[in-house]
Amino acid sequence: MAGSKPIVLVALALALCACSREPRVRVGSKNFTEQLVLGEIVAQHLEKRLGGHVSRKLDLGGTLLAQQALVAGQIDVLPEYTGTALTTVLKQRPEKDAAKVLSRVRAGYAQWGLEWLEPLGFENTFAMTVRNADASSRRVSTLSQAAASGTWRLGAGYEFATRPDGLPGLLRTYGLHLERAPKTMDLGLLYQALMKNKVDMVASNSTDGMLSVLPVRVLEDDRHYFPPYQCALVVREAAEREFPGLRKALEELSGRISSQTMRRLNYELDGRHRPVREIARDFLRSNGLE
User: Fold this and answer.
1) Spatial separation of the C-alpha atoms in residues 282 and 61, rounded to whole Å
2) 86: DSSP letter
3) pLDDT digits (tens, 9 = 90+) for 51-81
4) CA-CA distance, 193 to 48, in Å (whole number)?
């Protein structure tokens, strides 16, 4: 029997190697709070539905880096926003009709063998946000009023400062006057800069959790500059073929997340600093997706 031990060890090693090569659905996300939460929700949901055959590639970076990973087959599923896909990825002109935007991105992404599923249920548009005190003292509630009320010190994420549906078009549409070049920073630092009076206005996101607890006001986009930004899951068609239950499992998440729910989930991470795995687990439980 002693002589059989090496054979047993070799067999175990081969079994472990086989397990390590087992195909897995690779879930990706970009590098900000909402994407991390969504990525973890998708990963945990797929683990339940596909028997654990999932790997995470979260916090990849910005839009174009995440898109490259998707096209290259380094990830299989990615939460994305229709307006971002239309203007930043496909380089097409903005469109105000949400259904038309979704149709156009579906057609455009087909060239890469990527499918857009039905939206998750919320839209995350840009939200030009100011302190309540400034909104009151300047008597502004819309971006048109802000443009007529003098100069602003703007804080923004790196993408917003250059993307075609971001700052350049906003300045053209409203004639907004900036005191100096925008102060670009990580998205997680925007509210801190605003509350510490380092900037007067920030380009935040409409589902940011901090919007519900800070003394700030989102200015109305009264000229409807920003295109629709419905969030949906983009999945590789090759992965759908490889994992027969993948599409059905992902479709279970469509329509499940409202803007209010997304804002709350984001605050759980940004405001309460709860582990993202707990946040995702609680969401799935509360929605009967265990």
Assistant:
1) 26
2) I
3) 989 999 999 999 999 999 999 999 999 999 9
4) 40
Backbone angles phi, psi at 128, to 5 degrees: -80, 115
Amino acid at 90: L
192: number of Cβ within 10 Å: 13
Distances (CA, A) of 62 to 6, 84, 121, 166, 186: 49, 11, 22, 14, 11
What phi, psi does 72 have (nearest 5°)? Answer: -75, -5
Token pair belonging to 270 = 């940004």
pLDDT in tens, 186-243: 888 999 999 999 999 999 999 999 998 999 999 999 999 998 999 999 999 999 999 9
Angle between helices 259-270 and 276-286 in degrees, nearest 10: 150
Task: List all residues 6 or more positions away from 157 whose beta carbon is below 8 Å from its beta carbon.
Answer: 184, 185, 186, 187, 190, 203
Question: Which among 157, 189, 171 has a CA at the least distance from the CA of 270?
Answer: 189
Q: Which residues contact 180 (CB under 8 A, 6 or more apart)?
A: 153
In angstroms, the CA 273 to CA 279 distance is 10
- pTM summary value: 0.80
Q: Tell me how far apart the alpha carbons of residues 230 and 208 are, in angstroms, rounded to a whole number.
A: 15
What's the rounded Cα separation, in Å, for the pair 103 and 272? 37
Using alpha carbons, select from 225, 270, 287 the residue that is nearest to residue 36: 270
Sheet strands (E) in the chain: 25-28, 54-57, 77-81, 114-116, 126-131, 151-152, 154-156, 177-178, 183-184, 201-205, 216-218, 231-236
Q: Which domains does the chain have, with CATH numbers?
A: 24-123+228-286 (3.40.190.10), 126-218 (3.40.190.120)
Per the listing, tokens 């409409």 go with 206
Give bridge partners of residue 220 from the DSSP assignment: 142
